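for the writeup, i need someone to sanity check this before i put it in the appendix. the sequnce is what the collaborator sent (i think, or maybe the updated version? ugh). structure was predicted straight from it, no edits. if anything looks off just tell me and ill rerun, i have time this weekend
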Amino acid sequence: MPNLDLPILVVDDAKFSSMVVGRTLRKAGYRDVRIVNDAPEALQLIEQRPVSVLIADWLMPEMDGLELTDQVRQQDEQNNHYTYVILLTARESVEALSEAFDRGVDDFIYKSDMTKQLIPRIFAADRMADRQNTLLKANSLLIENNRELESTNIIDLETGLCNTKYGRERLTKMLRHAESRGGCSAYVLCGIRNWQELKRKHPPTVMSELGIGIARRLSTLIRPIDALCRVGDNQFAIIAYFPNSDHCTTTAFRRVFDGINHKALKTTAGYISVEAGMVLCKANAQNGTPSIQDMERAAVQGLVDAYDTRRFTETAPELDATA
């Protein structure tokens, strides 16, 4: 059954021609038919309320049917909508029709046989426009759902570790816990110094295996009470709390540094050695509570030094004066 509420817009500078099209559509039962006599007015109406089918004369003053189609496609892109465009034409050359299809026109109706062709073409346009707009709406919903999932997701899908979002939440809680109970918060940043070099040598599948292998290795080396997160393509963070700040030193994490640097990881491309740089960023509650941005900033700067010196370095955040 045809959708008689299908929104249709007819654009033709020749009033007799537009009257014939409008009368034919209404006679077939279509109720939502608007008629204008120039392209600029048509664009205004579409901006106010999109249509499913646009029937336009190819040759019009100011803006012809192809130029109108270009403008409509831009509006469609902005509005996540699809308008089925039919041009009324007396031109039957293959070159002209090919150009029109390239510009985004969907179909043609020859003026010499307009009354016979119009309604069957509208039936087809209805099906195609409905299908396209249904797909656009479904895709829009999928994108929105993915955004919602990403905003709440706390897992790095490749390694199964916690991600940056969780890491920041955990670090915030750790800093607040140290603030109320005393002690020291530790943010240990581990970066794979030769990651880019390895990416140039190995395909993505092998790099994925390597990332998973590093995650598993680190998981076996940290304390059970510590949190391990993947915070970048080649960076991992350990978040820990020490009731006694004297115990929060690089020595407490030395086995992690040695374990990742001194033993190669097995992949389908063979055993691969990584060069890990590590920095311990510690925040003693007696000195005040830094923000997570302070901690991250200090850790990144410290990691640069660790890469240069190839040593496990230690640093502390500068407290934000506005905090």
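The first strand starts at residue 8 and ends at 11. The radius of gyration is 32 Å.
thx in advance!!
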